[in-house]
Amino acid sequence: MPEPATRRVTFPVGGMTCAACQSAVERSLTRTPGVREASVNLMLHSATVSFDPSVVPVEGLLDAVRDIGYEAEAPAEGDTLGAPAARAALDEVADGALWRKAAVTFVAALAAMVVGVPLMAPADPSGHGAHLVTADPFMQWVMRALGPALQAAMPWLYALPPAVITWSLTVVTAALMAWAGREFYVRAWKNLGHGTADMNSLVALGTGAAFLYSFVATVAPGLFTRAGVAPDVYYEAVLFIIALVLMGRALEARAKHQATRALGRLVALQPATARVRVGGVDEDRPLAAIVPGELVVVRPGERLAVDGVVAEGHSAVDESMLTGESVPVEKTVGDAVVGGTVNGGGMLVVRTTAVGAASVLAQIVRLMQDAQASRAPIQHLADRVAAVFVPVVAGLAVLTVAAWWIFGGEAGAVRAFANGVAVLIIACPCAMGLAVPTAVMVATGRGAESGVLIKGGEALQRTGDVTAVVFDKTGTLTMGKPTVSGVVPVASDVTDDSLVRFAAAVGAQSEHPLSAAIVVEAARRGLTLPRPSSFDSAPGLGASGVVDGVSVRMGRAAHVAPDLALPPDTAESRDTEVHVALDGRYAGVIRLHDPLRADAADAVARVVSLGLMPVLLTGDRQGPAERAARGVGITRVVAGVLPAGKTDEVARLQGEGHVVAMVGDGINDAPALAKADVGIALASGTDVAVEAADIVLMRPDIRGVARAIALSRQTMRVMRQNLFWAFVYNVIGIPVAAGLLYPWFGVLLSPVLASAAMAFSSVSVVANSLRLRRANLDG
Cβ of 572: how many Cβ atoms within 10 Å? Predict the structure, then answer.
């Protein structure tokens, strides 16, 4: 029975503010019939879902999010890079509403504190002020400290009737709750209707209860005085809490913008339109209206909008966004170009091969976006805590109120309410929810800027545990551009040219770099290559075909002539060799030399400096393998292995207790890349290798291997710090807010200070993650 089709879609999700929100959205999507996997990103405000479109449409996924009180939008049709979430995150930050609301509310809170100072009458014998405008102990202390100076500077305040001040505070607080704090209450109400709870629920419950308590104390103070409780109020505390929470969210948004900057820069590389030539006339079109095969005109200094092949013109193209090389690359007719690169001084006419979501740039963005949407395993504990955090905190707040009401003595009722609000406000699932995703996002962005594309949080975490790095030789430690160094025919009726001609005719059908080198040698000799009537490839062994009626077999000696003894000079050669047999008869050998990369020795030295064991693993013969190993400083060499043998060697290292990273670039490396704990592929390698890898080196620089490992180690250190402080903050902060230390030290926590601490906890986690942007990966 055929496998049902799976579609993957990423769409923006609005309204998420903490880990509890993220957990609720992900749970709703995962429970939707037809959904195979769902990942929700709190940083990017996005959801990435793999689903069966025959069971549930995209609209059904959006409804699953909307049904629990959050907003969801379908992916934009014109968003050809597939990064709507990144753009939504940047748009959110561009909006200064959070800062405006926070600033206005904070100024109003300061004003409320100032106008309340004249009403701080001396305490009566019961310990309560006659006209106490605030019940918050911290604010009482501040107001009493300001009293003498304020009376000297603003005597007119003391002439205002107390009722005017208290009612003014009531109206201003209610208005700002409705304007600046509207999101808290709207989302909390939606959550209540859907049986969920998040950070908005805690803030709304705390500030809402404080306002209602204060309002009753304002309009009916007798209800309190008859019960022996002072009619104290919390208006300025409500304003300070809203202002500080909004300020914290604004700082978070700013930090998120910095964290998503690398992805945003990639998105911005794609022009919105391109100049298309139709019938000799140039016209501007949006990218969505361009199809493969059309001619796109690129003027000097313009950014290429599409992937394609140069059809007319000559220019130098800056490909630094792709390769990291600052020197422009000469391009002429027949050369491939990539969208997002910058044209130099000449005009190019490019025949489109890929545009939009199919382009190289879009694939890079998609890989990076998927990586940032993924989870590191270390986050699972935070997810489990976040799922139950808000209900537990609400329960602890109720217990706090009850305990203080019963055992708090004469001032127990007032303290019960203040401490209950403090518990609700100080609890912060935001810090737990941001601890790992912020680090993953900044690290993957930092990696991309260094030419290292990490395919997710899990790969990022595993890379830090690597203890052994296995390098393939050809195309990894070497340039992957071998040249023919010698042709040795051994059959009397075979010449140098005929040996090269037959081998090149078969090799032209293969993607292997050795075959390509033989084809180049044939062209250098001016040989005409016939097309084989049949062709077959054996990865890791060689290739075969029929050329002009002659059966040609080329590749490893064991593949070509397993029963024949090779001449002594051939057996002892230090070059890479391709053996050739014609009609079942050994015909000769073509020797090739593949120079080491200029950065290979330094790359291996950096791996060793990190305390890791380098291993050279190759299908080539022992002689060339040992020569390459000596050139780069590797002592452990395993040569002459087939693709299956490479997988076995990786398994052997894992059996010795090593966490193995495999670095390769070819089809024959793909099984070992998949078997290794971490697969690292060069982007210049085959698509199969890149697909099998966890990390892709986008630049021709294998020092990226050490950079990836160093980045992972630093990222894991930051993740652990973030989680430690997020958990410790809540473990310490909640008991202190509940008044647990009061019996021994007389310490109580003001709701205002609790809100400041809550905002600081989230911002500190994001700020700590942002340090990774300056991580030294070459030290």
Answer: 10
Residue 360, Cβ density class (10 Å: 0-12 exposed, 13-18 middle, ≥19 buried): middle
Distance in angstroms (rounded) separating the CA atoms of residues 456 and 547:
47
Q: Which of 378, 373, 374, 367 is nearest to 716 (CA)?
A: 378
Tokens of residue 429, six digits:
């699932």
Q: Which residues make Cβ contacts (< 8 Å) with residue 255, sequence separation at least 6?
A: 438, 763, 766, 767, 769, 770
Rounded percentage of the chain residues whose pLDDT exceeds 90: 27
Helix (H, G, I), strand (E, B) or coil at 384: helix
pLDDT for residue 310 is more than 80: yes
Report the distance separating Cα 335 and Cα 308, nearest Å: 8
Q: What pLDDT is stored for residue 707 in this prediction?
A: 95
Rounded CA-CA distance 261/86 in Å is 9
State both tokens at 73.
Answer: 């939008």
Residue 324: pLDDT over 70: no
What are the tokens at 418?
């203040």
Helices (DSSP H) in 408-552: which residue ranges?
412-426, 429-449, 457-463, 496-507, 513-524
- Residue 153 confidence (pLDDT) above 70: no
The crossing angle, in degrees rounded to 10, of helices 751-770 and 412-426 is: 20
pLDDT value of residue 365: 75
264 in Cβ contact with 88 (< 8 Å): no
Total residues found in the chain within this entry: 779
What is the rounded distance in angstroms from the CA atom of residue 14 to the CA atom of residue 166?
37
User: What average pLDDT does the segment 471-481 reach?
Assistant: 85
What are the two backbone dihedrals, phi and then psi, of residue 50, each rounded to the nearest 5 degrees?
Answer: -100, 125
Token digits of residue 323: 């390769």
Beta strand 613-617 pairing with 468-471: parallel
Burial status of residue 59 (CB atoms within 10 A of its CB: 0-12, 13-18, 19 or more): exposed
pLDDT exceeds cutoff 80 at 518: yes
Q: What is the predicted pLDDT for the residue at 255?
A: 65
How far apart CA 80 and CA 66 sit, in angstroms, is 25
Q: Which of 77-86, 130-139, 277-286, 472-481 has the lowest mean pLDDT?
A: 77-86
**Catalytic site positions:** 472
Q: Structure tokens of 261?
A: 């900057």
What is this structure's pTM? 0.72
Cα–Cα distance measured from residue 449 to residue 757, given in angstroms and rounded to the nearest whole number: 34
Q: How many Å apart are CA 101 and CA 19, to the nearest integer? A: 23
In one-letter notation, the amino acid at residue 757 is A
Residue 455 makes CB contacts below 8 A (sequence gap 6+) with 367, 370, 371, 374, 693, 694, 695, 696
Q: What is the mean pLDDT of the chain?
A: 82
Name every residue whose Cβ is closer than 8 Å to that of residue 717 and which is 6 or more positions away in sequence: none
Tokens 């999507």 belong to 29
What is the residue type of 297?
Answer: V
End-to-end CA distance of the chain: 54
For residue 745, how far is the Cα from the chain centroid? Answer: 45
